[in-house]
């Protein structure tokens, strides 16, 4: 027979690990889980992690060197990674793909490592987003100023005879 504290622990486990059902039969508790991966940690070597993340082993070693991807080592020195490491690498790659610097990814990775479902829910990550947004706004403002200058140059020269046409008629096709 399962005593009270054990029953409470089993129920807590069921909630924690997304159990589909909890049943008792002849004093034996049975838990059916949505994912067995919660209980087994499958380690992968650096090549498998690189393949699954769509990157290179060289990049992974660089992330490790920068302190973004700490690797566990086996007795024979091989690096071992798990699903959390894969999530961290995917977070790093997605941020790099949209223009963030590698150092900017650190708060996002730390947020994931702290057990959060995504890397952008922590205050440090939000601060990086805000800083990047300010940089983008500044860049957009500068680009709009350049665009206005180019548009003004086009407007000034629209409808007038171009310098190339004038040059060709005067100097037998030397161009601008």
TrEMBL record:
Gene Ontology MF annotations: DNA binding; DNA-binding transcription factor activity
Q: Which domain of life is it from?
A: Bacteria
Q: Name one Pfam family in it.
A: MerR_1
Record-annotated membrane-spanning stretches: 16-36
Residue intervals of the HTH merR-type domain: 43-111
Q: Which key words tag this protein in UniProt? A: DNA-binding, Membrane, Transcription, Transcription regulation, Transmembrane, Transmembrane helix
Q: Does the keyword Plastid apply?
A: no
Keyword Transmembrane helix carried by entry: yes
Name the chain's protein: DNA-binding transcriptional MerR regulator
